[in-house]
Amino acid sequence: MLDMGEVITAMVTPFDKNYNVDFESCGKLMDYLINEGTDGILLSGSTGECSTLSDGEKLELFRFAKNNFGDRVKIIAGTGSNDTKHSIELSKEAERIGVDCLLIVAPYYNKPSQQGIYRHFEAIAAEVNIPIILYNVPSRTVSNISSKTCVELSKIDNICGVKEASGDMRQISEIIRDSENDFVVYSGNDGDTLPVLSLGGYGIISVASHIICREIKQMISSFKKGDYTRAAKIHLEMLDIFNGIFIAPNPVPIKEALNMAGISVGPCRLPLCSMEEKELETFREILKKHKII
Q1: How far apart are CA 237 and CA 239, in angstroms?
Q2: How far apart (Å, rounded) are the C-alpha atoms in residues 271 and 167?
Q3: What is the DSSP code (8-state) at residue 274?
Q4: Catalytic: which of 135, 186, 202, 217?
Q5: At CA 215, angle to CA 214 and CA 216, rounded to 5?
Q6: What is the Cβ-side half-sphere exposure of residue 201, based on CA atoms within 13 angstroms?
Q7: CATH of the domain at 163
Q8: Using N-to-C axis directions, what is the helix angle for 209-224 and 228-244, rounded to 10°?
Q9: Residue 43 is part of which domain span?
């Protein structure tokens, strides 16, 4: 069974005022996240602004994390692309650096068939030996990995899990029911974590864990101990944060939250830009309510 932990933080990529990757701030953020209890750190995911990172920047991030924090936390590298050959090359480089696992998003923009999606992941898995977590996020890719395709992919030895962000509980149920027994299903949306756990899911690849990691871990722990009332109470208490961090395009709000909390992560790269004042004020009130700022 995949051993990346129950809470993986999809980490933002800190930039300086000139929009260069700020490795000093990266180190401070990773240290903070580890101390807050995250089990794994995902680099170059959607929250890490992978779309505007060059391959060189991604590999430098993976190397920095592995060299400085690899003995304290699992390092997961986002190496997905809508170009199979490109994803293979990036995945092999990440494996050479020594990351623990790969997260590979469904091919976006091309709109491949289910056979094309299967063959894409099959080809990548054949070229690396480390574990792979599939990433299904149709709202971004317009390319849903169907439950049938996911189940077939789960039969490939080093495809060990899926980050399911479709929000489709029927699809997620079918994956959990029909996939290989050691195949791990992570919620891809913070607000879906408790429902996914109730279906037999394992944990969360989280944005909210930047600011409420301890609460998320308590919720998961309570659920798995059978204290469903406590788990539900924590879920409901955190619901406005789960929703608030998507009041504007991710990762704009979570970067704002970290900056306001005194954890410097800088701005987002274009085409992402600052929140509108009304959004920011609403979000600030949520953060104040929960004593995050």
Answers
A1: 6
A2: 26
A3: P
A4: 135
A5: 90
A6: 30
A7: 3.20.20.70
A8: 160
A9: 7-227
Is residue 35 in a domain?
Answer: yes
Q: Considering its fold, how many domains does the chain have in total?
A: 1
Between strands 7-10 and 74-78, the pairing is unpaired
163 is a catalytic site residue = yes
pLDDT tens column, 110-156: 999 999 999 999 999 999 999 999 999 999 999 999 999 999 999 99
Can you give the length of the chain in residues?
293
SS3 278: helix
In a domain, 33, yes or no: yes
Decide: 135 and 117 in contact? Cβ < 8 Å: no
Tell me which residue of 85, 188, 182 sits closest to 145, measured CA to CA: 188
Mean pLDDT throughout 79-102? Answer: 98
Active site residue 228: no
pTM score of the predicted model:
0.96
Element (H, E) at 74: strand 74-78
Tokens of 187: 């919620």
User: Is residue 93, in this structure, part of any structural domain at all?
Assistant: yes
User: Is position 239 within any domain?
Assistant: no
pLDDT at position 1: 77
Q: Which DSSP state fits 50?
A: G
pLDDT for residue 70: 97
Q: Which of 58, 163, 217, 255 is catalytic?
A: 163
Q: Is the pLDDT of residue 180 over 90?
A: no
Distance CA 70, CA 75 (A): 7
Amino acid (1-letter code) at residue 232: A
Distance CA 169, CA 172 (A): 5
